[in-house]
Amino acid sequence: MKKRHEMEVIAVDTIAKETIEMTLYQPEISQQTVPGQFLHLLVPGFTLRRPISIAKVNSEEGTVTILFKVVGGGTKALAAYQPGMTVDALGPNGNGFQVDDVQEGERILLVGGGIGVPPIYHLAKRLSEKNVELVAVLGFQSKDYVFYEEAFQKIAETYVVTNDGSYGHQGFVTHVFSEVGAFDQYFSCGPLPMLRAVTTELKDAAGKVSLEERMGCGVGACMACVLPTVDNSYKKICSDGPVFSAQEVIL
Amino acid sequence: MKKRHEMEVIAVDTIAKETIEMTLYQPEISQQTVPGQFLHLLVPGFTLRRPISIAKVNSEEGTVTILFKVVGGGTKALAAYQPGMTVDALGPNGNGFQVDDVQEGERILLVGGGIGVPPIYHLAKRLSEKNVELVAVLGFQSKDYVFYEEAFQKIAETYVVTNDGSYGHQGFVTHVFSEVGAFDQYFSCGPLPMLRAVTTELKDAAGKVSLEERMGCGVGACMACVLPTVDNSYKKICSDGPVFSAQEVIL
Amino acid sequence: MNLEVKLPGLTLKNPIMPASGCFGFGKEYSEFYDLSRLGAVIMKAATQFERFGNPTPRVAETSSGMLNAIGLQNPGVERIIANEVPRLAAYDTSIIANVAGSSLEEYVFVASAFNQTKDVHALELNISCPNVKEGGIQFGTDPEMAKRVTSAVKEASNLPVYVKLSPNVTNIVEMAKAVEEAGADGLSMINTLTGMKLHLPTGKPLIANQTGGLSGPAIKPIAIRMIYEVRQQVSIPIIGMGGISTAEDVLEFLQAGADAVAVGTANFQNPFACVDIIDALPETLMNYQYTSVQDVIDRRGVQV
Amino acid sequence: MNLEVKLPGLTLKNPIMPASGCFGFGKEYSEFYDLSRLGAVIMKAATQFERFGNPTPRVAETSSGMLNAIGLQNPGVERIIANEVPRLAAYDTSIIANVAGSSLEEYVFVASAFNQTKDVHALELNISCPNVKEGGIQFGTDPEMAKRVTSAVKEASNLPVYVKLSPNVTNIVEMAKAVEEAGADGLSMINTLTGMKLHLPTGKPLIANQTGGLSGPAIKPIAIRMIYEVRQQVSIPIIGMGGISTAEDVLEFLQAGADAVAVGTANFQNPFACVDIIDALPETLMNYQYTSVQDVIDRRGVQV
Ligand SMILES: Cc1cc2nc3c(=O)[nH]c(=O)nc-3n(C[C@H](O)[C@H](O)[C@H](O)COP(=O)(O)OP(=O)(O)OC[C@H]3O[C@@H](n4cnc5c(N)ncnc54)[C@H](O)[C@@H]3O)c2cc1C
Ligand SMILES: Cc1cc2nc3c(=O)[nH]c(=O)nc-3n(C[C@H](O)[C@H](O)[C@H](O)COP(=O)(O)OP(=O)(O)OC[C@H]3O[C@@H](n4cnc5c(N)ncnc54)[C@H](O)[C@@H]3O)c2cc1C
Ligand SMILES: Cc1cc2nc3c(=O)[nH]c(=O)nc-3n(C[C@H](O)[C@H](O)[C@H](O)COP(=O)(O)O)c2cc1C
Ligand SMILES: Cc1cc2nc3c(=O)[nH]c(=O)nc-3n(C[C@H](O)[C@H](O)[C@H](O)COP(=O)(O)O)c2cc1C
Ligand code: FES
Ligand code: FES
């Protein structure tokens, strides 16, 4: 049976502009999570839970790390949590990045945009356990928003792109695709316009994308988060996704 | 101009069953308050402020003490406050007990019931600075709810009454009126049924009573808390009261 | 404590059921607890054909509430009977089917379809969905239309029919009386209130459908008022809903005039909402000196 | 930043005013701040004779809202003109009088009484008070009645008339159109939604009047939806209200179709609510790339 978890806050840090890294203690989740899955967090005073991707796990210490951007009331309240407090979470929810079909020796392109970078980091860590070559393209608004570059550099050939050129390459993530060379498959997570650009640019490549939508239940019951599929049907982002094959869904 | 105060919580203690004593730091209020006045407290997550009487002040230390019973969501949340946190308060609100007409040498009867005891204590302290004789009758549900008995004993001839007889005299506060002897005027605060009994029993005596009603604004603007008066008019408990002459109002 | 309630067609072990549309067909929440604990399950709306519903975003958060405009997405009544009902029937609980449509004919089609199965115990006739352009809403705001669809469905169906009323009306009592006269076995109230939220950066409605239905604790005072008003003038049972999230809320609905209740939005905040309420109900009733759910209902009878 | 708005009879230095009944006649809040900072003040309802209102309890708290059933307690229009208006007139702000009644004649009496004073700049015609047994509510729910009272008051008064609509109706656009046709200079919307809360120990309504009007953030989505709907079909200005407590809320109301706004329940939580909002408004508008309040109104015109 699924559970509602009380996760203890271990650490809260601002690691970039408006960007919070929070480490939570919950051994079960730390052991079960697949990259791309999310926590569905209850913030007291708000009706709906907030979906936040898992950015890393440490199954030995029993911890789970999330990164989030402060955009509205819920994330603002969450950012004010102190170590020792607990967060009510459902999870790990959804289906993450399937990496079973990633073969030894493949070259994998990872594309993360903004607050879509954390689940891509989690995936990169998992892939780095396999014998594959990783190339990461990370896009941010501007220099102040950049995070996790060093962590990526340890495991992947890393390109950082900022919209305004204040750090790394200037422009959109797609602007450096010409530099990254050939790859076997790609994985991407980021804002919808970025995913649209990425999937269009790479339309002939095998790829998986992680999507967002406003959620009600977060567990597949309410039909708030549906997405049309190419076979004239639909998928639920919260429970069928958030990760889908780029070929399968209509963005 | 009136203000909205951020009062720092200095101490929170459970001093009897479901009864919390909370000391707050706010020099201005500690200096201005008259016994019987109240704070109008904002508890995050609740629409309306909670009126709570001031039970003592220490103008040297700049502190204000309140006592409250945990009855619903607002007082429950307030009871969980920790020292160092702040409470948003309006106050001191209302008109308290006027003691200008209390003459030297008078014998004064004080009648407090349950959570109506704290403002009576504040008044007792103030009156004890005058050269008067104080008799206090304090009523509680049962032994577990009794508080401030010793504090009263230091300044007044004190009778404690419990409904179930588990401590002190058994019955209602009015049951011991025959024992307290003659007095010049009385002051009372407590639940409405008690005040009705007290004012009926003492209908020929000069007295003042402190009343409660559900409040909207707490400052006299919304007309939520009106009370009919004997002259076919009305008074607002929050701003004309909460203390009224027993002869003036219809309970 | 005895939590049982008897309603036309339904003997409920307790008065708590998930509200339509907030629990799918039970599959997802069956991963959190045993659905046999529930008094009943009200399924997501069924229409004649599969519906894909409205574009997204379909939900928005509001103070103590939420807006939704799902648009009755469902696989169609035949597939519901074939795939969903049998799975739910494995649990020891009652099943109520929520019947929707855009025309009288569609309501009748869907209602009669449920005659095929022995596993559905009652119909909830949804004449109050604010989120579909055609049909639904007129049936729910015009007493004559409500009467017609209720009579037609009563005639077509072998099952007791609970008509689900819309709160978006000037006079709820008139609507309740109309469907009672038309033969409704019970009422279900309230559905959502039509609301809107704007997306400040664009100044446009945040929900793709523009308006959505407001649910959650924000609407509870309106639900209580409507149930109380209807209870004074109508004698068929009421399944009450609108903002329930605690056992105290359930008591308030029962006191106001409901005979059983449904829990909607609260499931999203707490997937265990229904069972947590069932667990808390005996103590809550005791705290207020009630000896059973039926006792609340009986003593309300005396007071009114 | 320029926060000015021009409405019939009113040039407001900013679009923020306290809502009727939530600010008395300004006296109490004048002890918190200088009332000259307000765009306008809407006074508590005036009736022909003094009214003592309903028995207490008159208010109850709900999730993100409150219920009230004050019952239009006020000293009567003559004493308001004699005692309250002059005190308010000392401030550099506009004064709007809220006109209530139980009969067409009473509305006309009260409205004409305000012709005596030069210090009142507009009338808010309250045909939507849910808390008085007689009159009020029918005028607010029946378009024909609404038309009649609006015409009669327009004829009797020298002042611009803003008709305050009730949200307790099936079709708000129909009501708005009716009063526009009858000559209303503007609309004021929304008044409270009728609600109820029970006192669990007794099972009886907590408010002595049984029902009360629901206000506060809980009702904001309903207010936004109604204003948006009316804005598409009616061209007179709208004073918007219902759950406003922040400058973002004000922007949402302006975007939805309001031309100015009133703040009610929020004053109780924060006596500085109106001035805090006025202080925050310029930055809020800037954050969303607006250059003035009028700019929000103009750009909405283009979008609609
Ligand atoms: C599967 C998934 C994974 C996500 N992972 C992350 C992450 O790792 N880090 C991160 O910073 N953000 C992530 N998001 C986005 C995050 O959920 C929103 O930023 C957050 O809910 C905003 O809440 P708020 O109260 O601050 O904002 P508000 O705008 O006040 O929220 C109001 C409502 O809108 C919803 N909402 C607002 N923005 C979004 C959005 N982009 N997606 C879905 N719902 C939204 C909120 O959940 C809430 O119900 C993820 C979203 C999804 C669907
Ligand atoms: C002038 C005045 C002074 C008071 N002084 C004290 C005091 O010193 N200590 C103390 O324990 N209590 C005092 N009370 C009562 C206290 O205000 C309530 O017990 C408290 O508001 C309950 O809040 P709650 O959220 O716990 O209860 P809930 O029942 O959840 O409150 C719901 C709503 O009802 C109101 N309410 C509930 N009970 C009362 C009540 N008895 N009087 C007024 N409003 C009520 C609340 O303020 C709130 O708006 C006083 C009341 C008044 C009017
Ligand atoms: C996401 C969502 C979907 C809903 N779908 C339906 C539906 O299909 N049929 C129906 O009759 N009511 C539907 N409703 C209304 C609920 O059944 C219920 O009447 C309403 O939400 C009030 O209860 P609550 O406040 O507990 O949610 C839906 C509500 C929500 C929030
Ligand atoms: C205590 C109280 C008293 C009110 N009295 C009046 C009134 O006299 N006349 C009127 O037109 N509206 C009255 N209203 C309604 C408000 O003016 C306003 O329309 C409503 O409360 C919605 O706004 P809010 O959510 O900001 O409070 C009253 C509201 C409250 C809460
Ligand atoms: S959020 Fe409910 S189905 Fe996805
Ligand atoms: S509470 Fe508003 S006048 Fe007393």
Give an overview of the whole structure.
The complex is a heterotetramer, with 2 copies of chain A (about 250 residues) and 2 copies of chain C (about 300 residues). Chain A is of the alpha/beta class and about 250 residues long. Chain A contains 6 helices and 15 strands. In chain A, the strands form 3 sheets. In chain A, strands 10-9-8-7-11-12-15 form a 7-stranded mixed sheet, with helices on both faces. In chain A, strands 1-2-5-4-3-6 form a 6-stranded antiparallel barrel. The mean pLDDT of chain A is about 95. Chain C has one domain (about 5-55, about 70-190, about 215-300): Alpha-Beta Barrel (TIM Barrel), CATH 3.20.20.70. Chain C has 10 helices and 16 strands. Chain C has helices spanning about 75-90, 105-115, 135-140, 145-155, 170-180, 220-235, 245-255, 265-270, 275-285, 295-304; strands at about 5, 10, 15-20, 40, 60, 65-70, 95-100, 120-125, 160-165, 185-190, 195, 200, 205, 210-215, 240, 260-265. In chain C, the strands form 4 sheets. Chain C has an 8-stranded parallel sheet. Chain C is globular and about 50 Å long. The mean pLDDT of chain C is about 95. The interface between B and D is medium-sized, with 28 and 34 residues. The complex binds flavin-adenine dinucleotide (2 copies), flavin mononucleotide (2 copies) and FE2/S2 (inorganic) cluster (2 copies). One FE2/S2 (inorganic) cluster binds near residues 215, 218, 221 and 223 of chain A.
